[in-house]
Amino acid sequence: MTCAACVSHVSDALLSVDGVEDVAVNLATEKATLSLGESNRQSDSPVDLGILSDALKDAGYGVGTRKVTLGIDGMTCAACVSHVENALTGVQGVESASVNLATERATVEYVQGVTGIADLRHAVEDSGYSATALVGDEMDEDSAHRRLGLLKVKFAFSLASAAVIMVLMAMPTAHTLLPFRMEFVLLALATPVQLWAGLGFYTSAWSAARHFTSNMNTLIAVGTSVAYVFSVAVTLFGESSFFDGRDVDTYFDTSTAIIGIVLLGRFMEARAKRRASNAIQALMGLQPKTARIIRDDQHVDVSIDDIVVGDRIIVRPGERVPVDGVVESGTSSVDESMLTGESAPVSKHPGDDVYGATVNGRGGLVFTATRVGRDTMLSSIVRLVEEAQGSKAPIQRLADLISAYSCLPL
User: Fold this and answer.
1) Whole-angstrom Cα distance, residue 357 to residue 284?
2) Angle between the 252-284 and 216-237 helix axes, to the nearest 10 degrees?
3) How far apart are CA 343 and CA 336, in angstroms?
4) Over the stretch 160-205, which tens digit does the pLDDT of each residue have?
5) Which of 77, 136, 204, 256 could be joined to 217 by an S-S link, Cβ 3.0–4.6 Å?
6) First to last CA, the chain
7) Residue 390's closest CA among 1, 12, 29?
């Protein structure tokens, strides 16, 4: 998605699916929140992900996925590979899974929000194996950084080319210094901008056209292509009888400047999205990665993804509380400023509630987990922040509707 028209198209596509009553699409986080009917909410599988994905593809978009690599222990043969792959692909929201016996790793592509790392690990464990390692967050960060860097190079190259073209066009005597016509120099400068820097506009416009719709990229692709193609014709055939010998100007400066300015806007937008995403990730990063729980009268360190409701968890002095729960034993004070903004620690005694990502004081606590995963207070805050980013006032919805129609090519 690149503009308000895309938001409108995605909303209409998702609303066309049976069982979906309302849709809130967030352009900044590139997420869509669906509200379902009462009968759909009560079922185990309210709306099939494949139907939603097909609806988005028909509208020229797709479901965003995340790719992670899990370390798998216990595989010994090709049959083990098949068992693990079948277990992973059987998880709702998993697009693909590939298991390598030699490296003992499984690469999984899944829809974030529909399933999570804990679900993948439990699926592997249910099949008789174990998932011990996790790689993926660094790759996602590197990939986003590379995309942002490429966008920066493209807009800088486009604007630099546009500036050079404008300077050459403003110098009427510059052509006397060249053994050939000035238009060929302008053509050489504008062509990489049009075909390389502007390639994303063409691919997006073509994808929308295949589904009989349009977006902001359609306007950019059509407008710059007309200016570029006309200028190429003038460059190659300007002295022919086609133009009746008239002196016709080129518009290479227009096409390159438009592409450069739009790419600059896309770069600023992508950087703002990344900062918003990093802020949410930083909030989620407050939650510890592991927790010490009591199982079979033994203290065991486990991943936070493996905690289930009812686990008894030990929090030592100075540690962060891993999940929400109720204090069973111990007395301490907990810094809850990340929730309330109040710097004074809150005393905790048996029977009091504790919340994930808050910081324990000098005392030790043992508590029973009551909310884990996406049900914790921290996850709820993150979800509310994302929903607030995607919420719109009525006047903004009207503006988006007008923008969607304005993207239709004349």
Assistant:
1) 8
2) 150
3) 8
4) 999 999 988 887 666 666 667 788 889 999 999 999 999 988 988 8
5) 204
6) 22
7) 29
